[in-house]
Design a protein that fits this description.
3 copies of one chain form a homotrimer.
Chain A (H helix, E strand, L loop, with lengths): L1 H20 L4 H13 L1 H8 L8 H6 L23 H5 L9 E4 L2 E4 L4 H4 L4 H8 L6 H6 L2 H11 L2 E4 L2 E4 L4 H6 L1 H5 L4 E10 L2 E9 L29 H5 L1 H5 L9 H6 L2 H9 L10 E2 L9 H5 L3 E2 L5 E3 L11 E2 L7 E2 L33 H16 L4 H34 L16 H22 L3 H5 L4 H29 L1
Parallel strand pairs in A: 7-8
Antiparallel strand pairs in A: 1-2, 3-4, 5-6, 8-9, 10-11
Chain lengths: 500, 500, 500
């Protein structure tokens, strides 16, 4: 017995030595010297990260399925040091517009997907094909969506019995829509700041702070890995838990988190998730978790206990998405390309469907691609559910997509009638289609109610799709829109009679 | 010291052997042989369950208070095997319409309360008397409620300035209301499917998947134990945590979970619940938990540290419910019987109160029964609170029931006036009372706002009862309904004048 | 090896003896004798508390930074006993109106801040300067706010085509607004109750139960420490977790918890908080936690790993609050004093701004004080974030305060026009400004939508500030108010024409 205990002790001390053998680079040591007192929270955070523990040569020793890195050999200088401050903040200084001289080093403030690609190449490349990476441009450069932003964020005034809408300013946009979509970070000069170490010079950034998924970075790259893997722990656990996605996918427009919470999956996660392993790579169904989170179905590498791959990791989340069920007027097949600003419908509007719902096929994936993606997703379901169960589930989702599109069409017809009869001003009058009360009711029909109903169906959180921003509100909204139109047209008629 | 360590090792190895002595049946072994790779997630899930660990003879060795089973002796064949796949999925094959031949066994897909009753007899019998077990019929077979379903789930169209409502289809109903209430599962023939094991035949089920509380099963039984005890871990922990109930009791119509979350009890659970024991049977106040969850007050066997019973376990949850505070137009004494389709008010409507609020006494429990139930509930409160505290709390709840009923009556009077004056079409016009905008506002008065206010009072989550779908909205809704009526009647008057 | 194990055992047994040396007082032993069976839940709860473990002399042995108590020497009789039932419930009997004779002791029911001050003097004094301590009077004694309470909680009736509003009753108020704000607890006589120990006499309390933050206690003190430190565990963990604040700060009027949940901080807390130490005093950034909760930024003593103080503990939460961003019509500098009933604007209304938004400077802190408070708050941010990050963040908040105030002003202008033109009755007509539908829409503009938008900005939970009760609703509400005014004025015009 004594011998075994001694042996164990020796083993552990060797282990400790082995870990200590992995070095912090001299550059990073210098960073830490000051930042341990300048920003103690993030230093402590980083110390808890895998980055602080493992060098690239160690990471590459692991079997492929267990790796978190996706390059085949250690990048220059990273083989035998842990990934510390300097390893990320001094990489390729010439490509970062925000590089500045800081205590003898060329530092850049904003670490970008290009920097992360040094070790996580595949993930970065996939993400660049992900709709999210284009979230800035897809909102900013689509004139229709941008007029929606203006109609929400612009200051309204009231004078002479009329409301007036000013365009939204950058500061408000950065604090609202573009918080999630991402801002454009640009260097606007240099400024001196009084620090613990005396006066220092720093680049002045516009659009900062921001960690939006489609952020335009000072090196021209798009996105922010810290949207889902927050600095400086970069924990896979945060990204795999539903609370991570909830940061942007919770509001009435994208109630993914709310729906998950009332699903059976969410119920099991809430009760038992505390005992699951959210750090294991690969992620083994049954062993590491017994119900999926968002990441399981949409992104993670999932295996069974034999090590067989159920789903490949993909940071191009659309790989498992046949439909686009939110954000647009009608649900439709997923767009072919992440840059949706190229899309135009027959009426010339930058929309993937006509105003009356017909999809603009040339920009959208075809049925074969839809089937392929559905199959990829369903392989995850198959780990627990029978084929019949899965088919029944997706049959309902397809039916619900059809149903919600029809209910949106009905609301659209009421709006089109209002425009036609002069009860509201629309496209023909060269007016925003989002700025009047009746138009805002129409927006809620699809952006809130139809979306919510589809999410509830897609993730089997049906309770959410009835009363909580779902079918109840779709049905009520149509009645209220029709009521309003009747009142308005009647008022117009009376006024005409009176005016005579 | 060495001897003690050795003794401990021997003890543990004996323990391990003891557990291994409990066998997996040969039938279940055969199931597992394929399903460990066909559906690895649920096999792993089951392995973590008590079912996979304990045989009935072991379960029956426990003192009565600690048992999870409620038959007095081990059912045939279950004495010395753990409860595996075959033990549930092959039971009484002749009674299950969905039994089919599968690799030489007579398997049924849908495990039902009747199957669970083999070991959990009392719980199944109690549940059959629980309102929930009738959730399918109570919604489907009550013409008034069913017209509510139609008004929410039916497709609406807009042509010639009129909206038109089609009846709801089965697929949409299954994806919304009946997801929680339960669908009717029927066998619609057989179909071949291509599986890992080659082509196989399976029964085709309608209404599938579903785990609603009042599901009509292929053996004629009602309900689904996996609504609260999700397969295949069947964890009591899931059922005892509020997230379990939240699956159906969260939306604006039944905001139990939301209210609990802002109550002191919910606050304590959120902060400290991680350290509580959710698996202990019986559940000992103070030792296992220090604030109640839904289950504590409504269903669980609760004892004190001396082993004295504070509350008996009952799956007939109405045992602790004097009032019915949600889902109906007015709060009222609990119905006598779980099948509420037998209820008719004086006006002939299938409602437990008149439209003006008077309860239909003959179908509802009397004051004595109410007192008895309140007492049963209050015994749980007494574990921590003084008599005065409890009486003060329930006095407020009764006051709030009265207050909310009055606010609903006011909304009803506005609607009755609208019907009377022809501003809307109601009972007298043989029209649905749920399909117009003003009627939907009226529905929200009771189904959302009065309900929420009562829940907030009942569970002391008062914050929810003011601004979050509570009193604020009741007061605002009345003003808006009155405004609408004024506008509408005025429009009708003007139109008459104009028409002359 | 054997020797080490033995040494460890001896050390542990000494430790156990040391703890046992701290005594439970004889009085408390007597309480426990009965209450262990009368109210077992709270006795078990207390046993898990620090109060049950530590005497004042032990507490005072700790270094100052680690102390939870703030007196310098042990109060009479508390030096060598743990803080049990009697220590709190028999303190200063003559000052408590609810003191009664109970088994030979002078007991009071309601333990008050004055009682807690015996050991936690500084915290109590700070809390008395905290806005929360005045929450009862600030709502009850401000005629304008009180008319808001009436308009929400009063029973409305509908007769002769008119709605009528009765003033709110005490019972409803206690079950809604004053649940959080606090009720007034008064002794209304004595009553006999049948207990396990036979018939006993107890004081009858009005306004009971209540644990509101501004509760008026039977000893004249204000507040309830158990609002945030629930009895009888008094856990600092509960107070430090966001769920604690959520009890009152969740509804649409104060969505702090909702916003935190969709912030990066909330995301990290949700995923990783399970591993943090919520009991450590002082609370060390990086070591004990890696993202802030409500308490971190607003109240807690926060240090770095060198033991340097980042933020002093203060139960006067306004110490870190330059702005008041919720509850009032416009955001404005924080009030100088916690009693806001003294405030009057130029128009004579008890408001800190004019109806058109101009702040009433004399009652509000000046720019210097605002800067000082902001700096105190920002020191917490500095533990992780750069100066530029923080400045960018607060620049946005200030912009959003300005933006939301403008959007409220626009809604106010519509309402003022409605009053002026007789479309609604306001101040000039001596009518409540909260009781009509259009006025309630106006209230939502600031109480729900502008508030939510500001919270979303302040805590970087931007997603909440767009669609979830934020900017979307502000913009829509203005359009709906303008629509309503047009309809109403038109109806008035037609009616005049018709009447001629």
């Amino acid at each position: 017995m004594r011998h075994r205990i001694l042996a164990a002790l020796i083993f552990f001390s060797l282990l400790v030595n082995a870990v200590q053998a992995t070095e912090i680079s001299g550059k990073t040591e210098e960073c830490l010297d000051c930042h341990i007192s300048a920003t103690p929270g993030i230093v402590a955070d980083w110390k808890k990260s895998l980055h602080a523990e493992v060098s690239m040569s160690e990471a590459l020793k692991k079997p492929k399925l267990e790796r978190r890195v996706s390059v085949e050999q250690a990048p220059d200088g990273l083989a035998d040091v842990v990934i510390g401050c300097a390893e990320c903040h001094t990489i390729s200084p010439q490509t970062h517009q925000d590089t500045f001289e800081h205590n003898g080093y060329q530092i850049h403030i904003v670490v970008t997907p290009n920097d992360c690609a040094t070790c996580h190449k595949t993930e970065t490349e996939e993400y660049a094909q992900n709709l999210m990476s284009q979230a800035y441009g897809n909102l900013k450069n689509n004139p229709l969506y941008h007029s929606l932003v203006d109609s929400i964020n612009g200051i309204q005034t009231f004078e002479n019995m009329q409301t007036k809408l000013a365009p939204a300013d950058e500061e408000t946009n950065a604090d609202s829509c573009f918080y999630c979509h991402g801002t454009k970070i640009e260097v606007k000069g240099m400024a001196s700041r009084d620090t613990q170490m005396g006066i220092m010079e720093f680049p002045v950034l516009s659009g900062w702070p921001n960690q939006g998924v489609g952020r335009i970075n000072p090196d021209g790259s798009k996105g922010s890995c810290s949207s889902c893997h927050p600095r400086h722990q970069f924990s896979i656990e945060v990204a795999r838990k539903p609370s991570g996605c909830a940061e942007c996918h919770k509001g009435p427009d994208v109630p993914a988190y709310q729906v998950y919470n009332v699903s059976k999956h969410g119920n099991i996660y809430s009760a038992l998730g505390k005992d699951w392993d959210f750090k294991a790579v690969p992620w083994t169904v049954g062993k590491d978790f017994t119900a999926p989170t968002c990441a399981t179905c949409h992104i993670s590498l999932v295996t069974d206990e034999d090590g067989d791959v159920i789903a490949e990791r993909s940071h191009k989340m659309s790989d498992r998405l046949p439909f686009r069920i939110f954000g647009l007027i009608y649900a439709h097949p997923f767009p072919k390309l992440p840059d949706t600003t190229i899309i135009k419908n027959k009426a010339g509007l930058p929309l993937p469907t006509e105003l009356t719902g017909e999809p603009v096929a040339e920009y959208l994936i075809d049925e074969n691609e839809q089937k392929k993606r559905l199959k990829t997703m369903q392989k995850v379901c198959r780990a627990c559910h029978s084929q019949q169960w899965i088919q029944g589930h997706f049959k309902r989702l397809k039916h619900t997509i059809k149903y919600t599109n029809q209910m949106t069409l009905t609301a659209t017809k009421i709006l089109l009638t209002a425009w036609e009869k002069g009860a509201a001003k629309g496209l023909a009058q060269n007016d925003s289609i989002f700025n009047e009360a009746i138009e805002k009711k129409w927006v809620e029909q699809w952006l809130f109610f139809a979306n919510s109903t589809r999410f509830a169906s897609a993730m089997a959180g049906a309770d959410y799709g009835v009363f909580a921003n779902g079918r109840w509100y779709m049905s009520k909204n149509i009645q209220e829109m029709a009521d309003w139109l009747e009142f308005k047209l009647n008022m117009m008629k009376e006024n005409k009679l009176t005016d005579r």
